[in-house]
Amino acid sequence: MSLKNRIGKFLFKFRSFTPLPLIIVLFLFLLPKNFGEKNILFAIFGFLLIVIGEGIRIVSIGFSYPGTSGRESYMRADNLNISGIYSIVRNPLYIGNILIYSGLLVTYSNFIALVIFDLILIIQYFFIVNFEESYLLEKFGDKYSDYKKNTKAIFPCFKNFKKPVYKFNILRVLYSENDSIFNSMFLFFIILIYKEKLLSGELSALGPLYFVTVIILIVLYIWIKIIKKRKKKID
């Protein structure tokens, strides 16, 4: 295995965790900017980026074959996703991730933090995608090679769209995306609370609403975790 693939394999294993400590470090060393009344615009735009990014992930996972697009720490592909959103772009999940984290940093309103984070994330995904594609090429051969030639890695090409082969699985989305949705929404509201406290010394009238929303998110997150655990026991 090449050095590039070894790096990619290592980063793939921890891909769900590496962005969080990085974003925390950036928050500790790079303070948010105060744009006064425009702060609300940054929050709205950041939230929209998060929703779009999560929407891309939901569509990708909901229509994908079983045994793919999982959160395992090891590479697994029982089938090859080449229809639906995967027919217009090869890496929709990572595009979704970039949009989600960019939304959090836009909400935080520090341009330098946004640039640093996105650059590091893109470099990480460069190695991960190289490792994944080497694996898929070895496993699926010409089928994946042809797919790779006709489908862009990052920039969507909508003229190549093919109707999803697999039906949308809402339960799979709930179980698989519970962590991602919770983390992104939890961090969004924590950033709003942190910014207001840091920049003005006190919370706005919306402060209590932020805390209530965070509590609701935690309850829903735990509830879905319990349901998922019980279902595994039954299965």
Unreliable stretches, pLDDT < 50, 5 or more residues?
A: none
Query: Biggest β-sheet, characterized?
Result: none
How many β-strands, per DSSP?
0
Cα end-to-end separation: 37 Å
Task: Give the averaged pLDDT, no decimals.
Answer: 88
Number of domains: 1
Structural key phrases:
Four Helix Bundle (Hemerythrin (Met), subunit A), 0% strand, mainly alpha, 235 residues
Structural features, described:
Helix 1 crosses helix 5. The protein has one domain (3-167): Four Helix Bundle (Hemerythrin (Met), subunit A) (Up-down Bundle), CATH 1.20.120.1630. The model has no long low-confidence stretch (mean pLDDT 88). Helix content is 69%, strand content 0%. The radius of gyration is 19 Å and the shape is globular. The protein is mainly alpha-helical and 235 residues long.
